[in-house]
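Hi Q.,

Before the meeting this afternoon, I wanted you to have the magnesium ion prediction in hand. No need to reply - just skim if you have a minute. The sequence and ligand are here:
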Amino acid sequence: MKTPSDFFKPLAIGAPEPIHELPVALERTIHFLPPHIEKMRAKAGQIAKNVDVLLGNLEDAIPVEAKEAARSGFIEVAKAVDFGQTGLWTRVNALNSPWFLDDMTEIVAEVGDKLDVVMIPKVEGPWDIHFVDQLLALLEARHGVRKPILIHAILETAQGVKNVNEIAQASPRMHGMSLGPADLAASRGMKTTRVGGGHPFYGVLADPGEENEARDFYQQDLWHYTVARMVDACLSNGLRAFYGPFGDFQDGAACEAQFRNAFIQGCAGAWTLHPSQIEIAKRVFSPEVDEVLFAKRILEAMPDGTGAVMIDGKMQDDATWKQAKVIVDLAKLVASKDPDRAAAYGF
Ligand code: GLV
Ligand code: MG
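Predicted structure with the ligand bound:
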């Protein structure tokens, strides 16, 4: 364990100072772009205007023969597009893959100054983050990158979940984590072939009623435990937590339900793999208008955040003031990017 005074020191001579606090950013949608496809590269500028984060995917779902094309395609997009307020991320290949080293060295060399976050798949423990941290510092120093590139870990192995808190604490570069339900299901030996979402056999049966009366079966959220652990590890360390992919593009309603569970539990956003999921994620990860209006009333009724008041018959105190502040702060962030929601929230 590093001493506190060493924790924030740059890991290479000439690397930028690590950050002490995560910059405020709206990250409802992390949109995955397959950069080896020319048609997708051509659309990147347009897509970037409509999402909070555009991510060039180099890992799973990119065919082996297209790995180099995806990497160079991402670099091309990163150079060509003006991202404005939209975050620019990439998901590189796994640390033990033949592509990881070139992904990192080429991308930082070419577009290190534009890249906000590098997403690292299959993170098992803090040792993986330490390795990437050191490598990034060396590359930043070599290429004169001014702003530290942050690290986002995918939580998608049983061991990673076991070490989730140590991963969150591994470096001041940590941005956050995403749940990777497909790889995690495989790693844990879960019996599902889906990419995220529920499973019809995972649930509870209601108690028996009268004889021969049909018993209701209630499907449960398979990901509740992992999302809760990830949220606690991330939020207690000043990071952000995200739900990852939802693979059934036909089932927008189920995608929305899964995203909403994550949002209510504390996540900041989710991955969007298909254009139809962008509006779902923006809707779900922007607070509900009624919640925002009620939260504003709490803040107004308790200007210094202490004491107790009744609003519509409901008790409010210092703790509900803090809950309200979470919602109003997020609503303000959403409003800064979205004039329609700003008007609905009354900002
Ligand atoms: C994402 O990478 C997943 O494995 O679900
Ligand atoms: Mg995965």
